[in-house]
Amino acid sequence: MNRVRLLLARHLWLQLTLSLLVAVALIVVLFPGRPVLSVLLRTAFTSVGAIAVVLTRRRKERRAAGGSADAVVALDAKLRRGEVPSAPEERGAMRELVAQRLHRMRHRVPALICLAVLFTAVTLLMVFTGTVRQAVGFAVLTVVFVGWIIYHGNRRHERLRTMDAALKAGEPARAPR
């Protein structure tokens, strides 16, 4: 699993392509009868804004980590393991990366509440206006996706806070499990 994570972290285009293909597959399953090419083109077109946000975020992280995607991947691996960098320039890069990510996560609780409300509203709309397949599909998607986002968001936030405290204190951090 770690190799897949590293591959996706290094090659952002692969991550975006796989996300697009999963979205297309989900739409085709939930709304059968639509041409796959049409769904693919529509999904790609509506994903342009999200792709721009991801690319902008990645560019800022590369700049904070020293200019390369490999530097971001290396710092992210250390962050996951809870290893505080020992080299001063690497500590500075980690400090900048952690500060950026903590800043981005400052409104995570209201955003998660909004996301849960929106997903629940769409699920309820499918219950009242869609087929049984669509209602069940959206219900499962809502529970799995929102639960996954909340769990991993909390883990990531705890890792960032632990690393931030360790960088400020100058002592080794423990990776939260």
UniProtKB/TrEMBL annotation:
Keywords: Membrane, Transmembrane, Transmembrane helix. The chain crosses the membrane at residues 12-31, 37-55, 109-128, 134-151. It comes from the Bacteria. This is Uncharacterized protein. It comes from Streptomyces dangxiongensis.
